[in-house]
């Protein structure tokens, strides 16, 4: 019984730390957030998304945040080369964050690109939500 408990503990422990490797495929009614364009206009209920590159082993990451009226829906992660995911340096991939515009108004989505913990770039994207 003791061995079974240890096996169950290890299984769930590994499952918690395993990365979700699911490639994001936007539907036709979704709108991409362009960090460099700086503004976006969408209708209430529209799902918007941002995809960025990450490479944790070299310290390349990003974070994204939004006003509460731009509701977080889901995060996706996909390795650039899933066959190399367990190898040194093979953790490069794409993260996609999906949000939904829930209320009319003007809001901000903030994207921060980091390298080894230091913010390199900050992008504030204005999102105008209309009926």
Helix content: 10-25%
Unreliable sequence segments: 3-19
- Largest sheet, strands/sense/barrel: 4 strands, mixed
Mean pLDDT: 85
Supply Rg.
Answer: 18 Å
Task: Offer a few descriptive terms.
1 helix; 8 strands; single chain; globular; 131 residues; mainly beta; disordered N terminus; 4-stranded mixed beta sheet
Describe this structure in words.
The protein has 131 residues and is mostly beta strands. It contains 1 helix and 8 strands. It has one helix spanning 2-17, and strands at 31-32, 39-43, 47-55, 60-66, 70-79, 92-101, 105-115, 118-130. The strands form 2 sheets. A 4-stranded mixed β-sheet has the order 1-3-6-5, with no helix packed on it. A hairpin with a 2-residue loop joins strand 7 and strand 8. The longest helix has 16 residues, at 2-17. The chain is globular, with a radius of gyration of 18 Å. The protein starts with a helix and ends with a strand. The model is unreliable at 3-19 (pLDDT under 50).
Question: What would a concise description of this structure say?
Answer:
The protein is mostly beta strands and 131 residues long.
Mind sketching the topology for me?
Blueprint: H1 2-17, E1 31-32, E2 39-43, E3 47-55, E4 60-66, E5 70-79, E6 92-101, E7 105-115, E8 118-130
Parallel strand pairs: 1-3, 2-8
Antiparallel strand pairs: 3-6, 4-7, 5-6, 7-8
């Amino acid at each position: 019984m003791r061995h079974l408990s240890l096996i169950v503990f290890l299984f769930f422990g590994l499952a918690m730390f395993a990365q979700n490797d699911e490639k994001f495929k936007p539907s036709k009614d979704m709108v991409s957030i362009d960090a460099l364009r700086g503004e976006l206009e969408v209708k209430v209920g529209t799902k918007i998304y941002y995809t960025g590159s990450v490479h944790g082993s070299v310290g390349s990451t990003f974070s994204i945040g939004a006003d509460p009226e731009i509701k977080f829906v889901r995060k996706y992660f996909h390795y650039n080369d899933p066959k190399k995911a367990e190898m040194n340096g093979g953790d490069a991939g794409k993260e996609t964050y999906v949000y939904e515009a829930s209320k009319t108004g003007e809001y901000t989505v903030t994207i921060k690109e980091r390298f080894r913990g230091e913010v390199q770039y900050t992008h504030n994207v204005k999102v105008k939500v209309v009926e």
